[in-house]
Structure formats: C-alpha cells, structure tokens
Design brief:
The protein is an alpha+beta fold. The protein is built from 4 helices and 9 strands, in the order E-E-E-E-H-E-E-E-E-E-H-H-H.
Length: 144
C-alpha cells in the first residue's frame, strides 16, 4: 500500500524588517514526490507573502544541524546579528529572489518530528525508487 501524503500545521514566525509575525504554516510531504517538502501559509492566512515553497528534504534535514542549501532556499539555525537565538530553538528558512529576501522561522522540534515522519514514509536513499517520473515531467511541463 502506498504511503499517504503527510501534512502538519505548525506555528512559524515571519521575520520582517520592522517586526516579526507569528502565523500558521503547513508542512506537507507526498511520498510520490519524495525529494520535496512543501512549506506554505494556510489558505485562510491574509499574509501578503502567502504561497507555497518546495524545499529539498535533505536540505531541511541538514539545516537542523548546520547551514544548508544554495541558491534561492537556505536553511539553518536562526540567528540575529550573527548570534543564535534563545529557546525554543528556531530553524530559519531563507528565501531569495532577485531583489527580495524572506525568512520564516520554524520550531526545531516541530521540524524534526515532521521530518522523522517523512523518513518513516520514505527512508533516506529510497527516494528515487518512489519517484513517479511521468507525473514529475508532467508537472514541470505544466509549470513552464
């Protein structure tokens, strides 16, 4: 029996230039697309930067320990002015786009527990065997 998609609703903090905003975020994982975790604002959240981002599962896992990722998504321990923040320990997910930057901070425990569930659904190293190549190509073609 194929593993079911997983979704977990967590509180996160959107770090802004003048103030931070606590909001509900959805972490989701579909074993049919085993390399990616989706992070998004709840559909009812009026946050102007709403949307869904796809983040490599391994980048999120490595970000629990040390800065990880390159390009438009980077993950690592939350810091301000180069200093780690106090408990509860946060994990920063940074999004880069031309001329724009955004940061969402997740509780480390929430992220760790969610990732553990994804690795129960699809163990590390077994992702390629679970990947639905035709569906992935179709999704990429639709996005183009």
């Amino acid at each position: 029996m194929p593993a079911r998609p997983l979704t977990r609703h967590v509180l996160g903090m959107v770090v802004g230039p003048t103030h931070d905003t606590v909001t509900t975020l959805a972490l989701s994982y579909d074993p049919a697309d085993p390399f990616m975790v989706r992070l998004g604002f709840e559909p009812t959240d009026p946050h102007p930067d709403g949307g869904v981002w796809e983040i490599d599962r391994d980048v999120l896992s490595q970000g629990l320990i040390r800065p990880s990722g390159v390009g438009d998504v980077r993950v690592g321990p939350h810091t301000r002015h180069g200093r780690p923040q106090s408990a509860p320990r946060g994990i920063a997910v940074d999004f880069f786009a031309p001329g724009e930057f955004g940061r969402v901070v997740l509780n480390q425990t929430d992220l760790r527990e969610f990732l553990a569930a994804t690795y129960e659904a699809v163990r590390a190293g077994a992702e390629a065997a679970r990947l639905d190549i035709e569906a992935t190509i179709s999704r990429l073609m639709d996005a183009a």
